[in-house]
Specification:
Keywords: Membrane, Transmembrane, Transmembrane helix. About 90% of the residues lie in helices and about 0% in strands. It is elongated. The chain is mainly alpha-helical. It has a domain at about 25-64. The chain is built from two helices and no strands. It starts with a helix and ends with a helix.
Length: about 60
């Protein structure tokens, strides 16, 4: 790729981002809350198993 091609691509990309809508705030809030909910749910389900794996690894290291 030549430098002029890269400049053209950069200009097109900049124009595209300049004219796009920023999106709606309630949508982003909903996505954030849903992601947090999923993290909490997965942590609640996998937490005890991960704690067991971690404890087993620590026990092996300290026994070494």
């Amino acid at each position: 790729m030549t430098s002029s091609t890269l400049r053209q691509l950069a200009r097109r990309t900049a124009r595209r981002f300049r004219f796009e809508e920023r999106g709606d705030v309630p949508g982003w809030v909903l996505i954030t809350l849903m992601t947090a909910g999923l993290v909490i749910l997965i942590w609640a389900l996998a937490g005890p198993a991960l704690q067991g794996v971690f404890q087993q690894a620590i026990d092996r290291v300290t026994a070494f």
